[in-house]
C-alpha cells in the first residue's frame, strides 16, 4: 500500500491548478483513472524543516530558487517524504523530490515557520 498525504482546497484553486494537483496526486499514488482510493482523515505534526532535491538542474539556475520554492509551497497544505511536488514559475513547472521532513515523514505546512533546504 502506498501512503501519501495531501489536501485540496478546491474552492480557491483555479481550474488549471486543480487539474495539476489532481494529476500530481494520481501520479504520486500510482493511480489510473477509475481506480479506487481509500481516504482517511489524519492529524499531521507541524513542520519545522524540509529538504528538497530538484528533479532538473534548471531549477538551480533560477536567480533565487529558495525564494521560488518557499513561495510555491504556499499552495500546499502538507508534505510527505518521498513525494515529488510541482512548482510553477515563469511559465515552467519544476518538480522537486521531498527528501526529508521534520518532525516526521509527513507534516502540515499550513501557517508554520519551517526551515527549507535545497
Explain this structure.
- With 118 residues, the chain is α+β, with helices and mostly antiparallel strands.
- It has one domain: Vcp-like ATPase, Chain A, domain 2 (Roll), CATH 3.10.330.10.
- It has two helices and six strands; from the N terminus they run H-E-H-E-E-E-E-E.
- It has helices at residues 15-28, 65-72; strands at residues 49-54, 78-80, 84-89, 92-102, 106-108, 115-117.
- The radius of gyration is 14 Å and the shape is globular.
- It starts with 14 loop residues before the first helix and ends with a strand.
- Residues 8-13 have low confidence and may be disordered.
Provide key terms for this protein.
27% strand, 19% helix, alpha+beta, four-stranded mixed beta sheet, globular, 118 residues, two-stranded antiparallel sheet, 2 helices, Vcp-like ATPase, Chain A, domain 2
Amino acid at each position: 500500500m502506498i501512503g501519501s498525504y495531501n489536501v485540496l482546497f478546491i474552492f480557491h484553486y483555479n481550474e488549471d491548478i486543480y487539474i495539476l494537483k489532481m494529476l500530481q496526486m494520481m501520479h504520486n499514488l500510482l493511480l489510473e483513472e477509475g481506480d479506487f482510493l481509500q481516504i482517511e482523515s489524519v492529524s499531521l505534526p507541524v513542520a519545522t524543516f524540509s529538504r528538497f532535491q530538484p528533479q532538473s538542474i534548471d531549477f538551480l539556475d533560477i536567480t533565487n530558487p529558495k525564494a521560488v520554492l518557499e513561495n510555491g509551497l504556499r499552495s500546499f497544505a502538507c508534505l510527505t517524504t518521498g513525494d515529488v511536488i510541482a512548482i510553477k514559475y515563469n511559465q515552467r513547472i519544476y518538480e522537486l523530490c521531498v527528501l526529508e521532513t521534520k518532525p516526521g515523514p509527513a507534516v502540515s505546512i499550513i501557517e508554520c515557520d519551517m526551515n527549507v533546504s535545497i
